[in-house]
Write a structure and sequence with these properties.
10 helices; 18% strand; six-stranded antiparallel beta sheet; Phosphatase 2c, domain 1; alpha+beta; five-stranded antiparallel beta sheet; elongated; single chain; 411 residues; disordered N terminus
């Protein structure tokens, strides 16, 4: 299907219920004209019952309106509705016939002629008053067709103007949310005495639900955090902003990972609804770079690569995600001894769950394999992970979920 048609169908399916109903009314009015035109196309010169005219109009318009209202539902629902209204039209009209008599072509909605030589139905003996009644009915039908066209067109214009205005406001809100999202993520890599750090985020929609951060504390320690808010879009981006705000506020009091998790959990529990939670991983690197305290909350394990052996091990705390329970008791952070050249990789589950055309997921083992052999700066290692992900999925961006990662190289 052409891209422009796909975009049009997306706009149609994304309409809010009141707008969709108004759009269905426009379709009813515009396509109801076809029912009236079917009367004007009749070859038979006669006055048709007004119930017949009304039913043909309602059936033609109802068919179009039903298709609009069932957009995005199961295909068989649309098929059944189309079959129903089509049946109503043909039953009401007695069937559609194309008749050729003595070289004359005629279209009838009341079934085939019983006798091809009987012209009485096509050319009845009409008195002047009968002929006047036919002209009057056809004039009324033509006038009604024009009225329906005008009303339908006006309704379509109202729908389009409303949708354009709504989408303009939405795009403005999304641009603001994107600016907020960019402010959440460090603009540059961090170089400290103990380590160098780089991060990346690839959103699957206009605004990501992922958040990562790293900063140097006044006492020389470095704190790293990564979070994944359920869902994605503007709502998830707003909760990510709240997470960053609460995180920075907590660092002013206590930067220990467990204290950070406990504080964020209480704050996010109060700010989010019952269906929303945040997975989180936090690390605090001492000023010498000889040890790293790591704690996670419902988040994928942090990967640690030893420089000498190149062995990769996963570090994970047995803690639930944030905002699920108000008074969660979090396990103590894992203290990891490390030396110059050791690497750490934080990431969100969007990397693990990215799938190829066969439905196979990227998975933790594949990520470990890439991380164990990647070389270069933290930014180079992140680029290697992203390139491998693109090769595996066959896509550049739009992996199905937001993707974020942070890589640390100890000095």
């Amino acid at each position: 299907m052409p891209r422009r048609m796909n975009e049009t169908l997306d706009i149609w399916r994304q309409m809010k219920p009141p707008t969709l109903r108004l759009f269905a009314l426009a379709a009813f009015l515009l396509f109801g004209v076809l029912g009236l035109l079917s009367i004007l196309m009749q070859s038979a010169i006669r006055v048709f019952p007004w119930t017949f005219v009304a039913m043909q109009t309602v059936a033609a318009g109802g068919l179009a309106a039903s298709i609009v209202l069932t957009a995005g539902r199961r295909w068989w629902v649309t098929v059944l509705i189309v079959a129903f209204w089509t049946g109503v039209m043909f039953v009401n009209g007695g069937g559609l016939s194309f008749v050729v008599t003595d070289g004359q072509f005629s279209v009838r909605l009341e079934g085939p002629l019983r006798d091809a030589d009987d012209h009485s139905l096509l050319h009845p003996q009409l008195t002047p008053s009968d002929l006047q009644a036919v002209y009057i009915q056809r004039g009324i039908v033509g006038g009604l067709a024009l009225i329906l066209l005008v009303l339908g067109y006006t309704t379509v214009v109202v729908v389009i103007r409303g949708e354009v205005g709504r989408r303009a406001r939405l795009e403005t809100e999304v641009l603001i949310a994107q600016d907020i999202q960019r402010s959440l993520i460090p603009a540059e890599s961090l170089s400290a005495a103990s380590c160098t750090i780089s991060g990346m985020t690839v959103p699957t929609s206009e605004v990501a639900g992922d958040y990562h951060d790293f900063l140097l504390l006044p006492d020389g320690r470095v704190v790293v955090a990564i979070a994944d808010v359920t869902g994605h879009g503007v709502g998830a981006g707003i909760l990510s902003a709240m997470t960053k705000s609460a995180f920075h506020t907590q660092l002013e009091h206590d930067a220990a990972p467990v204290a950070v998790l406990a504080s964020l959990n209480r704050t996010l529990y109060e700010l989010s609804d019952d269906k929303t939670f945040v997975t989180f991983a936090c690390a605090c690197i001492d000023s010498t770079g000889r040890s790293v305290d790591i704690a996670t909350a419902g988040h994928p394990p942090v990967l640690h690569r030893d420089r000498a052996s190149r062995d990769v091990r996963a570090i994970r705390s047995r803690n639930p995600a944030l905002a699920m329970r108000r008074d969660t008791a979090f396990d103590a952070a894992a203290r990891v001894a490390c030396g110059p050249g050791d690497l750490f990789l934080f990431y969100t589950d969007g990397i693990l769950e990215a799938s190829n055309e066969e439905g196979e997921e990227f998975g933790e083992d594949r990520l470990k394999g890439i991380f164990s052999t990647a070389e270069g700066s933290p930014q180079d290692i992140l680029s290697s992970v992203l390139s491998a992900l693109e090769r595996f999925t066959g896509r550049k961006g739009g992996f199905g979920d937001d993707i974020s990662a942070v890589c640390i190289r100890m000095m």
